[in-house]
Amino acid sequence: MKENLWQIAESMGQPVRAPLQPIHDPLLDAHGVRLFLKREDLIHPHVSGNKWRKLKYNLLQARAEEQSTLLTFGGAYSNHILATAHAGRLWGFRTIGIIRGEAYAPLNPVLAAAQAAGMALRYMPRWRYRQKELPEVATELAQRFGPFYLLPEGGTNQLAVQGCKEIVDDIAIPFDTIVCPCGTGGTLAGLAAGLAAGQQALGVAVLRGENFLDDAVRRLLIRKDCRATWQLTFDYHLGGYAKSTPQLLEFIESFARRHDVRLDPVYTGKMMFGLYDLISKGRFRTGETVVAVHTGNGSSDM
Ligand SMILES: *Cc1c(COP(=O)(O)O)cnc(C)c1O
Question: How far apart are CA 185 and CA 217, in angstroms?
Fold first, then answer.
């Protein structure tokens, strides 16, 4: 068995490419900020790059436990569901997706793609879905489906944080601040865990729920002492998860025109919109180097 799943992916014709792209803009020049985009979106055409990072060590663990089935949870537009379906197909796992709520026909494009990648879709009523962390639910699922490796909703756990830390390891230039969009906070925790002294991570929350997210990131952090190196902003969720404004859509469109980079309205669009606003307000020092993580262009749900 090969140790490195990236090598397996590459041997199967899936290049793992996430280069740094310099971004040039009058606003950046005016404030003396150097900005790079870490193109995690180039890792896979249909799957968010950060979901891929989160899966890496989980899949190695599943193999080490000799599990042949991955089971996970998600909403009907979940990037994580789709990522698990693709990863399962690529690395030879059966996959089961437990979807929140009722089944709809026809399947939406995300679930249709997950099913086409071989995932078995099963639906769970919302009241039950809220209880999915209870041991009795796991027992019931095991009785129904047999043994499986469990991936939490959004794919966020300690092994996912370890995988996201490699986003930082993969950056070859010195930088001061790294920025990412935050859903569950797993990606931000990974970035924070990978920082060197003097560097900081900034998470742009895409949903409401201040206290929840702050606690979640803290719990996930491997280095408990790195509280000082990360921060969250809740100023750019624009009303909540998947909520949008004409201003945001205008920003995404003009960013695409100027830089030929597609941002999505749920995650990366809000991050970049927030980052530009913070730069215009003088949040960053002259001469500072900022890396923004383009986490991917998935379907837009956790
Ligand atoms: C899931 C997702 C996120 C959120 O990542 P968390 O680790 O849950 O905070 C950000 N960007 C994209 C594109 C995603 O699919």
Answer: 5
